[in-house]
Amino acid sequence: MGAFLDKPKMEKHNAHGEGNGLRYGLSSMQGWRVEMEDAHTAVVGLPHGLDTWSFFAVYDGHAGSQVAKYCCEHLLEHITSNPDFRGGNQEPSVDSVKSGIRTGFLQIDEHMRAMSEKKHGADRSGSTAVGVMVSPRHIYFINCGDSRGLLSRSGKVHFFTQDHKPSNPLEKERIQNAGGSVMIQRVNGSLAVSRALGDFDYKCVHGKGPTEQLVSPEPEVFEIERSEPNDEFIVLACDGIWDVMANEELCDFVRSRLEVTDDLEKVCNEIVDTCLYKGSRDNMSVVLVCFPGAPKVSPEAVKKEAELDKYLESRVEEIIKKQGEEGVPDLVHVMRTLTTESIPNLPPGGELASKRSVIEAVYNKLNPYRSEDTVSMASYLWCSVSRVAG
User: Fold this and answer.
1) Quick check: 129 and 147 in contact, CB under 8 A?
2) How many Å apart are CA 241 and CA 283, to the nearest integer?
3) Rg of the chain over all Cα atoms, to the nearest angstrom
4) Dist. CA 277–CA 304, nearest whole Å
5) Rounded to whole angstroms, how far apart are CA atoms 338 and 319?
6) Please, what is the end-to-end C-alpha distance for the chain in angstroms?
7) Domain PPM-type phosphatase spans what residues (predicted)?
């Protein structure tokens, strides 16, 4: 398929920061796709006097990156500067925040449509958006499309957004009322999401308002009262993450990583790498926002992690030596062998895929004949094994 590369691009974009009692880290990786179409926003301290508020979002573009890039730069301003957001108050009320977020989405969508029509060729790209606005008292989850956000509280998934898929009953009803159909779980057999910014080819049904079109730019907004110290962390990620990890799996994995490192960029990098080796073929972006109640580094967990790494290193060495005169086995053979074994203390949710860097490192050290081609091919072998093992 032309949409994929011969081998994944694993270089990552990272960022981190802190403020307002929050710490955040993020990671994005192109992966197998021919183009990187994701974008993200992370702002601690909002404009217009909302210094104690913060905003984070992930945008998953499709058919191009233009809409995702524009939204990451301008969506927040469209939200916070419109009159509905303020509602006439210095400190916005819950209702005015929710109304202002909705208005901001509709405004930026109409603005991008007008810009597209002024150009010689209309922009056919679109983007999902998932985000959170964190005030001193509330968390506002914002979702438009099939990216997803979740909140971990008291050691479990407390809340997660619902994906907007064409096959969802209410989404399907809107699509059919606009004269469209849902085929192979896609809008008119083509687009896999039923809400998105951009995608103007699906927003031109005469006599229908902007939220009644085949594809709607209207976000769902949910407010949750903050609970200190029970709130742990928020994860925002595109569907390239959720395609291979369930909500509980990802929460368990993040929690286990926070017990061995306080480097949030590193945790996010482990998430995208693990998802790649679990078989994700999409762009991958994740933002991790930690509250003061997030898990802390535990000496016991660090010790167990070190023991696990040492055990895996010794097992790889044993597997290679066992071949003897037959020569060094390829990496896929090593992986297949390890997947048949019961290995204690693997990270929950990530399992063996999350330890690929440890295994590859010792494999490469013990294989003096490896070439650059061998190393790059190892990425494909890992994905193959992960899909078979899963």
Assistant:
1) yes
2) 9
3) 23
4) 23
5) 9
6) 23
7) 23-291
